[in-house]
Prior knowledge:
The chain is mainly alpha-helical. It folds into 2 domains: 17-76, Orthogonal Bundle (Arc Repressor Mutant, subunit A), CATH 1.10.10; 81-134. The protein has 6 helices and 2 strands. The protein is elongated and about 55 Å long.
Amino acid sequence: MKPIANPFRNSPRQLGPLEQRVLDGLWSKGNATVRELIEHCCPELAYTTVMTTLDRLFKKGLLTRSEEGRAFRYAPRFSQEELHREAASQALRQLLDTSPPSSLPLSFLVEILGERDAQLLDDLRELVERKRQELGHTDAVERAPRRKETK
């Protein structure tokens, strides 16, 4: 079994607090140059700090940029929802990849959803049914035989 680690520790898309702040500023503004971003959300930061942070976010593939005179105009490549979905997907994939072949990760997910909100369990059931229909498993779903619980 592989060791469980932070899924974003070595990821090029791991965000530090400053990167998150700058990205939040871009999401709220839509697109901006370094100077516009400083005026909009981080007036206490040095120009070179914001410029370096934007360049790091661009190199991580999170921003697009286009030349505008002697400066670049940056824009988010992904919406907040898309980025959160990717982070959750990466974390779940890593959990499933590092766990023994059992239902432990799934039961853990169900437990967490139940603790948060029972409606999430209903939402999960709907998503599972929709995926089964997409895959053509509407009525007869092939499953491994269930083990009898011992008391």
